Amino acid sequence: MDHFSHKHPLILNEDYIASAGCIMKATTVKHRWDPHPLHLIYDPEMVMNDHEHGFHCEFCPDELDTKFWFYHCDDCDLQFHLRCYDKSCYLNYSHIKFGATNIIMDKHHNHNLTFVLNKKFRHCGNCHLKNLGKPVLECAPCKTIFCEFCWED
């Protein structure tokens, strides 16, 4: 089997069936957070040599390891892990970019809020639900978070 990401013929081995999904990824995709196409980076040589800083995922926002495949826009310096690109396109809040600021929620809080992925063990300041690993609105001065059920309330 031939594949654009490798110059030698490939043999599909039963032990590696789970990783075969990467082979099926599109080489160019669109995302609503970027007006330009995102390109699949599958070789560290494809990364710009003059890139001044590390690559951070726009969705999670963990650092990307350029030895592993990811999507990238050279124009905007925007990138996603493959799994994060898929998640960011299909979740209910995919039209909002993490890090969006000055969000106002008059009912529950009087400070401006920021849309973040909650990476700490914290409870919603309104309903007290656990929100680890979920999108929340966060108040920087108060360190209070609000879950998606309360911001839609």
From TrEMBL:
Keywords: Repeat. PANTHER family: CYSTEINE/HISTIDINE-RICH C1 DOMAIN FAMILY PROTEIN, PHORBOL-ESTER_DAG-TYPE DOMAIN-CONTAINING PROTEIN. The keyword Nucleus does not apply. InterPro entries: C1-like_sf (IPR046349), DC1 (IPR004146), Vacuole_Formation_Reg (IPR053192). This is DC1 domain-containing protein. Residues 34-84 form the DC1 domain. It comes from the Eukaryota. The keyword Hydrolase does not apply.
